[in-house]
Amino acid sequence: MCGIVGAIAEAPVNQLIYDALLLLQHRGQDAAGIVTMLGTKCFMHKARGMVRDVFRTRNMRGLPGAVGLGQVRYPTAGNAYSEEEAQPFYVNAPYGIVLVHNGNLTNAQALKAELFAIDRRHINTESDTEVLINVLAHELELVARDLPLTPEHVFKAVAGVHKRIKGSYAVVALIAGHGLLAFRDPYGIRPLCFGESAAADGRAVMVASESVALEGTGHKLTRDVAPGEAIFIDLQGRIHARQCAEQPSLNPCLFEFVYLARPDSVLDGISVYHARLNMGETLAQRVISTLPPSEIDVVIPIPESSRPSAMQLAHRLGKPYREGFVKNRYVGRTFIMPGQAVRKKSVRQKLNAIEMEFKGRNVLLVDDSIVRGTTSKEIVQMAREAGARKVYLASAAPPVRHPNVYGIDMPTKEELIAHDRSVEQIRQFIGADQLIYQDIDAMKRVVRALNPALAGLEASCFDGRYITGDVTAEDVVALQAQRPLQFDEEEGEGGNRSRLALQSAEEGA
């Protein structure tokens, strides 16, 4: 999972993109990168680490121009600690193209061989984003060879990309000297939206993964990019849009609403906060049918994403809602921390229990989801150590039983606590007195009710149905082999983060 942004303005965009990436930091903490364009020259800075650590004043000065894009990355394929695989990616022909990508291509290996043997293009990393940018470059070269590039050519090239690549992809690309391109896979699995602003220093157009990046930088959300649609913004700020897929249908990732997106975002017309409230409502029904409410003294969320669901559940049960855990905000989100050893080590650094909320009580803990189970096990133990008489655990999401191949780092079956285990077996592993999961059908129903235009929801990690219809068991095994090579535990967050630069304005001729 990643966060991507692109902008065209009448003033320099380096600070604008930096601010947007801060608002999208929750989508990736492994690496960050920005590219800007001045004239036809591109300037890049990218490195491992958080946005605030990657970009210093000297780096920002080296990013001139009123057009640019950026990304925060959490790797789902390739090498997690390779500087070269941080985004954006760049190819110099045709035109000069820079690209950022959120998602995962399920046919990347086949495309890599095809690019080498047929298109005569060399791929130098294990990143599927490098595959994607080369496919786009090849299609642009085919449609606009020896001709001035027009929006029509761009849309034709995107149509060619849709026919060749499979999987999930939300993309922002910069075509040097021409403008900014954004497009989304025909199923709309990963989110993408755009908006405009009119400030004292002129008009700006921004494309981003979540609406919060637009609103937090003074832009008004125009709409989501439709599944299969391409948006091309020329250097004058004119917006051109075209549907480029043959049979698009809107099937956004359900896990975005469970965990990935910020609650103050609106994705595909659905308030993430409202979706989580609805999940709390249906989860309350499951709790009532499993456990008498009289057995519960207090409802306590496991910060942060579960709070709306926990509040609604407590309201429905008529039980007190209390904050029983204090979160250390200076420790990253454990779900997206590379490496199981690092994830396990960080739980008690991240959360601390308030003893008075647990002592002598039967507590119902509410989490957004249970993926590997190790964090849940330790949190249940923390509640017991704080004096809880009984500890019940409710998950606002159904059991995560299947690998995800569309850009979320939970791909191996062996890592999933719910794979081939009963709820009772999971409960015993976690150590809770009772374990209650969300109902998958009820969850889909209440999320879809917020936007009847949805064709469905991509929920493969819960139900095992891969929405693109082209993922086999053999494909899942092959994709598992492409999982990112993770950080060494000893290296952790303290590893080398040397600067990668295409060209710095200070170094330019």
Written description of the protein model:
The chain is 31% helix and 23% strand. It contains 17 helices and 21 strands. The strands form 5 sheets. Strands 3-2-4-1-10-9-11 form a 7-stranded antiparallel sheet. Strands 5-6-7-8-12-13 form a 6-stranded antiparallel sheet. Strand 20 (390-395), helix 14 and strand 21 form a beta-alpha-beta unit. The longest helix has 19 residues, at 272-290.
Task: List the keywords.
23% strand; disordered C terminus; 17 helices; single chain; alpha+beta; six-stranded antiparallel beta sheet
Summarize the structure.
The protein is α+β, with helices and mostly antiparallel strands and 509 residues long.
CA distance, first residue to last residue: 37 Å
Strand residue percentage: 15-25%
Broad shape:
globular
Q: How does the helix and strand content classify structurally?
A: alpha+beta
Strand order of the largest sheet: 3-2-4-1-10-9-11
Contiguous low-pLDDT stretches (5 residues minimum) are: 485-509
- What is the mean pLDDT? 89
- What is the CA-based Rg, rounded? 23 Å
Summarize the amount of helix as a percent range: 25-40%
- Quickly count the helices: 17
Number of DSSP E strands: 21
The biggest beta sheet is recorded as: 7 strands, antiparallel
Oligomer kind: single chain
